[in-house]
Specification:
Elements (H helix, E strand, L loop, with lengths): L7 H11 L2 H24 L3 E3 L5 E5 L4 H7 L5 E2 L10 E5 L3 H12 L2
Antiparallel strand pairs: 1-2, 2-4, 3-4
Length: 110
């Protein structure tokens, strides 16, 4: 069997979603603009960012950032358990503009 089975209904929904070309274009443009803005701001704050085409950003910062963010209700992905990475490697998703700005504003205060 497949590693992740997908129901027939989910498959049909996925196929229908792929036909929504305008929505896909708007979504891709939004993610691109927000990713560019987040990378710029993270870099200005001294974080090392890695280029991405996905809807997330991989970056390197101080150890313990995951816990500090969690205390403030901000969830970032701690990537220290990825093979070849150490503590201080993180991943964030591209979210709404408001949520992205909230993250940057909070990181500015550190």
């Amino acid at each position: 069997g497949q590693p992740w089975a997908v129901s027939t209904v989910a498959q049909k929904a996925g196929i229908a979603a792929l036909k929504e070309e305008e929505y896909v274009k708007r979504s891709m443009a939004y993610v691109h603009a927000q990713r560019k803005k987040l990378i710029k701001n993270l870099t200005l704050l001294g974080y090392k960012t890695f280029d991405s085409k996905a809807n997330y950003i991989f970056f390197q910062g101080e150890e313990g950032l995951y816990e500090k963010c969690l205390e403030k209700g901000i969830l970032i992905r701690d990537c220290s358990n990825y093979e070849g990475l150490t503590e201080g490697h993180y991943r964030i998703a591209i979210r709404s503009e408001e949520e992205n700005e909230r993250l940057i504003t909070w990181l500015e205060k550190l």
